[in-house]
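Sync notes, pocket subgroup
Present: LS, DG
LS reminded everyone that the earlier model was apo-only. Rerun requested with adenosine monophosphate included. Inputs:
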Amino acid sequence: MLTVTDAFALTQQHRLHLPTETVSLADAAGRVLREGVRADRDFPPFNRVAMDGIAIRFADYSAGQRTFRIEGTQLAGQPQQTRNDDNACLEIMTGAMLPMGADTIIRYEDVSITDSQATITIEDVQLGQHVHPQATDRQAGDELLAAGLWLGPSELAVAASVGQTSLTVTALPRVALISTGDELVDVADTPLPYQIRRSNTYMLRTALATMGIAATLHHIIDDEAVLKTQLVALLADNDVLILSGGVSAGKADFVPSVLAQLGVQQHFHKIDQRPGKPLWFGTKVDQNELTRSELTRDGQTKAVFGLPGNPVSTILCACRYVFPYMRTSLGLPPAPARYAQLAAPVVFKPAVTYFLPVHLTSEPDGRMLAHPLPGSGSADFANLLAADAFMELPPERQQFSTGEAFQVWSTRG
Ligand code: AMP
Ligand code: MG
């Protein structure tokens, strides 16, 4: 059977190539940049004063002068002024242009002012102090934001500062979340004794929302013909289908056979892991998409994940495979690996990768500790409330000791 590493690689090999779209700066938060942003002018754009105080000529100070006549005031937002008279100074404010004829700023804290005379009260003054010279951070034309960046607070501030009223970002994938199962009823329904309320699609929708992806929710009964009809329509309208349930070996598990009938190419079914062994993944190239004029969806790949229905299996498969898939499909680099140390020993006998639900704590010495949660059976999803992550324990071992570090996969979005 397939290893976790190979299954993950297969999903990544078949990631989506989503088109770009242009959005306003205000709507760009949380999106992925696809066209770099350059500086339209130098950073800073002029010799910018960094302290409130007075502007002097350093040569006067080095010649021994300590008291300067105040010739005028240069505020931020005013055109550049000139310090005219020898031995005079200008009062100057943070954010103002350095006046002509001045090169050094003395803070108000370091001068005493009486009768329009400023006297410097310190003896340690450097040429050019408290001036942020033009172009020292970036030069006009430099690339400030590269394609592939996630647009967060700092990125949007930089884009705003260079006059970028709109940005080119990755178009969001159209995602359908589909629960299957005759035993499942709607959240608002009162289940009969043999029924349960469906929860998986809400879990998946919440996690995708943290990536800025809005998904639609659907439910399909365990009937092969109905499943087929509804999946045809959902495949036509979406880039990604994420199904839950119906991929195991049960008599009503029709998902793999129906997807095959619909021409979705299976890349794998079943992984050597627990929980989540029956995970199914495939892609389809949709010819109809080639004629869609409004979008040029490169490659037109559509992806289908069939997640096992046990809620713990569902979230594990989503965190380990689906969300990383969405991330790189959006054009982001893979998330950096996160590790934690076991806070207690663990024994797991079967020779498969074991994803252990853990609670994470960050210790004062800098370590991240993973506390195993009790009762980690794959149906026991109320325990997920205490879980922050799954720790990935390798298949070739049975005993895992306190202090050993392994990779963790966050369940917190
Ligand atoms: P399946 O993968 O269809 O065999 O389902 C495995 C188990 O997960 C069954 O006990 C289902 O009732 C349960 N299950 C399936 N889908 C959901 C869902 N959307 N929400 C909650 N439980 C589910
Ligand atoms: Mg089922």
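DG: The two ends are 29 Å apart (CA to CA).
LS: Residues 340 and 368 are 5 Å apart (CA to CA).
Action: DG to write up.
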